[in-house]
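Hi Y.,

Following your request, here is the sequence exactly as I used it, all 273 residues.
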Amino acid sequence: MQEQKGESSPSISSLSIVQMNGVSASYDSKEYVLKNIQMSISRGANYAIVGQSGSGKSTLLRLINGMMSPTKGKIMVDYNIPNPSDKKFKSLMHKIGYIPQNLGLIKNSTVLENVLIGALPRVSGFNSFFKKFSDSEIDNAKKILKQVGLQGKAERKVYMLSGGEKRRVAIARALVQKPEIILADEIVSELDHVTAREIMEVLAEAQATMKLTAIMVHHDLQLALEYADRVAVIKEGEKVLEIGVEGDKIVDFQSGNYTQTEILEMFTNESKE
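Below is the corresponding structure, written out as tokens. Let me know if you'd prefer a different format.
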């Protein structure tokens, strides 16, 4: 009887889906890109990480999806240590939809072909190799294309699309994975303000309707404050600020050792860049 009890292990469900404790990271074992990061991201949050180029914000996403490991400290995603070599985490990787800064699209393939890549983890080995998908997977992909505003463009080649449309394809591919977490790295960079807000609306709607945790990297603090409910500011590898946002109000402020004057200057400088 005791052996039968041990066969099923209990699962843990908490308010935090991503936790970092004293995380430092380096690419060359000499210089730290991130230093002593403390971070707790709530399940279902729309969390933004803001910082200038080279501040380490993209490295945070790589740590969350297991593309790299911390040099110091500990990170857990849904109480699992991100490590693609670990069988348990590998089985959970499809729950993390990652949109890299370069989008990772196959330009000479169609929109539908790109989006269906998100369904590959659910396809058997043989069908996966030949990229053969069931009618239900194709129907679901088309439904999501409509959701992101790309109805009627399933057979169009990706290289024919505008910058905003390519980002919608990348979002749709991630949503087809049926993820619990969406990681988006500078998804609206190089877009005009109108298109950037259209893309942010698509992500915000998907995050709300599908009850996702969205973790997005931005360089635009004002845009982050507009769409996120929590914003972390990274400067030279350190988290210098974390803000809770409700509508147009800042409801929580963790500012470390910064004075109000220094914080206001930081906001002003960020918004000008």
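The chain has one domain: 11-272.

Thanks again,
Q.
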